[in-house]
Amino acid sequence: MSNYHIKHLEEYFQVYRKSVRNPENFWEEIAEEHFLWRKKWDTVLSWDFKKPEVKWFEGAKLNITENCLDRHLATRGDKTAILFEPNDPKEDTQHITYTQLYQRVNKFANVLKSQGVEKGDRVCIYLPMIPELAVSLLACARIGAIHSVVFAGFSANALATRINDSDCKVVITSDGSYRGAKTIDLKKIVDDALEDCPGVKTVLVAKRIQSEINMKDGRDQWLQPLLDEASEEGTATVMDAEDPLFILYTSGSTGTPKGMVHTIAGYMIYTAYTFKNVFQYRENDVYWCTADIGWITGHSYIVYGPLANGATTVMFEGVPSYPDYGRFWDIVEKHKVTQFYTAPTAIRALAKEGVEHVEQHDLSSLKVLGTVGEPINEEAWHWYDDNIGKKNAPIVDTWWQTETGGIMITPIPYATPTKPTYATLPFIGIQPALMDENAQEIKGNQADGRLCIKFPWPGMARTIWGNHQRYKDTYFSAYENMYFSGDGALRDEVGYYRITGRVDDVIIVSGHNLGTAPIEDAVNEHPAVAESAIVGFPHDVKGNALYGYVILKETGESRKHDNLRKEINQIITEQIGPIAKLDKIQFTNGLPKTRSGKIMRRILRKIAGKDTSNLGDTSTLLNPECVQDIIDNAL
Ligand code: 6R9
Questions:
Q1: What residues flank ligand 1, with Cβ below 6 Å?
Q2: Tell me: the pLDDT tens digits for 115-159?
Q3: What class of enzyme is it (predicted)?
Q4: How far is the CA of 535 from the centre of ligand 1 (A)?
Q5: What CATH architecture does domain 510-633 belong to?
Q6: Domain ranges, ordered by start, for the chain
Q7: Bridge partner list, 177
Q8: pTM here?
Q9: What is the ipTM of this complex?
């Protein structure tokens, strides 16, 4: 059916118009024709952004894993579902077929059941990029348990916060992980985290690095022997369309991380449909997304979207620099990858190493290149286009969020003419709006404002776990009847969108969202620190890096500043993870504050970015005198 696979620009416009004129009919057709239901829905959509409440396909019954696995067995049983490429290129690639994946998921689901996991229970998954990670998500979904994956780069503290927030009773982890030439003791991190998590009764441990680890009696169990015993048969639990599928945490500008809740049917339809169109996926393609499954990109576009389409999805355990900077291109050549999806920060890091690493490889299999996670700068876009795609593989710059579940603004490759740094046009069914400072929608092209979405789409998150009020306050309160993304954007003369970046206190570092508040809280834990303010500043590889302004309790602090800097970063590593470390720490005697006591970050951002020519209006400051002092001592 043509609506499911869009092939040229005119068709995009036709289908787009249809999708926004009558969204219910549009999504119902997609749902009818491309998915497996145990029972069809009573209502396609009911919604109220004021409450807010959004329900898609209410009354329908299904299991997402029957859509990702069972229904492919007859026609694609021997096709590779997951192509696992290990950290060490000398270790063999694993081809896991649809039949094998189905059996592994059933075994794992049976293990979870035997451990007392029931429908609706939360299971925390803290694993490296090994096949068990994908299998464990699907195993949870098979029995209706809600998975909460925590990226395995987060610290024990961050893990504990997330486990407790959603009250997980089981944790799935591994003895350790490989990362380039290093190994990481994941189990030790879990042990530390669990000291603060009384609700966790069971830890299942996959073996990956064969290291000696501590196994706590009565709590910890090796996974493999349990899997060996388990049956590879298993029926999928019948779920309601709006039952939660998973929780995934994302940083907010303040407070604890937000556990975004995605529900089954809408998420399935949206990830599957976007995957097919944004990557123009065809039956024998080999698709590779380099994200970690610990982030939404991995959930939607390594696991659910590709598998719902019966695709071959590559899972890479390692890093782009190991054993050398040609690793990505080595994998593309080896498996004849057709679609390659990565982050601007990776592109910039690889571009810096020069084209020699690229030139040794045959990249002619590539048909579509994608980017996600942060704005891509023009230079990186051209490097990607010239050296990787050889101007033959269109770049899809895909804008979306953990909250949106799937891609929202993007070119359709071979249909939408691309434009460097522009995510271009809304995806089918998506109705963006730009809002001005008076909370009015800016109509017409050549506009610049805050990016909102006017109408529900199936993939949107339904709530924040345990805190619906926060969901409402964060996303539905800034503008009436609109979902507010937290991003700024402009619309050019032909209606193409360019994302200009966050307009709140979230900073995107190497594509990872970091809230300033939790980092400041960590810095303030240092006994010598009185107060701190964190801002982002431009960085040529990471996109943004973090700059900390720190006031010490005693101005005559005798310890060396460099030691203090190390100690502060150590605390951040323990509390959040190494991704949140500060690149620069400036000790200062004051921070610019408004009369209501709010730190004026706008000024600090400009100073950190070495852009002090126009600091704007500082007259409302309580202590304008500190500004010059900060400028004079800037790093
Ligand atoms: C999928 C993902 C969401 C934030 C989002 C925005 C930034 C993502 C982007 C982009 C410019 C793009 N972002 N894609 N900015 N161009 N193509 O990354 O989800 O981790 O929740 O981050 O990332 O600022 O608001 P998540």
A1: 250, 295-297, 372-375, 397-402, 423, 485-487, 499, 502, 508, 513
A2: 999 999 999 999 999 999 999 999 999 999 999 999 999 999 999
A3: ligase
A4: 18
A5: 2-Layer Sandwich (3.30)
A6: 9-319+394-489, 510-633
A7: 184
A8: 0.93
A9: 1.00
